[in-house]
Design goal:
Elements: H1 2-9, E1 28-40, E2 43-58, E3 61-74, E4 80-83, E5 86-95, E6 103-106, E7 109-112, E8 127-138, E9 141-152, E10 160-172, E11 175-184, E12 195-205, E13 210-219, E14 226-237, H2 239-244
Length: 249
Amino acid sequence: MLVVILAGEAHAGPPFVTDDPETVEYQHWEFYIASQDARIPGDLSGTGPHFELNYGVIPNVQLHMIAPLAYDAPTVGKSQYGFGDLELGVKFRFIQETDRLPQVGIFPLLEVPTGSASSGLGNGHATAFLPLWLQKGWGKWTVYGGGGYGINSGVENKNWGFAGIVIQKQVTENVLIGAEIFHQTTSQTDFPNVGTGFNVGAVIDLSKEHHLLFSVGRSIDGPTNFQCYVAYQFTFDNSLFHFWNGSHP
């Protein structure tokens, strides 16, 4: 069942659970190969791996998809592995950042029930998350966060709320570090997924196109003893496709 919770957290702004309103540049792409894992007493669950793709379809609008391979490895019982719930979304930034105002955007997400609920690899019902995100920068420092409302249908499921905030700093030209704190209300009456947690993480730019991301954390007053996220990110624009078809100069 923890995979369902992780799927709910897949709206994260990598490497954090909390997202931001910043969209991918117009006609640019982000591709991730990532794993998001969490341990609670008696169980280890997560994605191994999941594939994320974001595209700047028009200025200030980003299309989003996550296709996860999920696993559930309880201390007692049979481990499960297979395709999880597919995530689809559109991020829209409608206020640009100024000297005084933050940038603001929405990022509605739909979880398509493609994973097996009986194996603990999916929710069994379509779910949605409707968040509002804000971000403001000062020199090398950036603060972003917000929250939203989750719609979770099905027996033993409840609609839920989420709120989080991240503070991060560009410590060198190619290394960014940050920390977040977040809180989620109960989304399943038969699973203790309510609580507050934190993560610390970093983004390392190996080059303009290649990046490494990771974060680690745990619950402050919830069931998660340990959680982590690690990813390789490849960023590119549409000129890459011209190179592949032989028309690149």
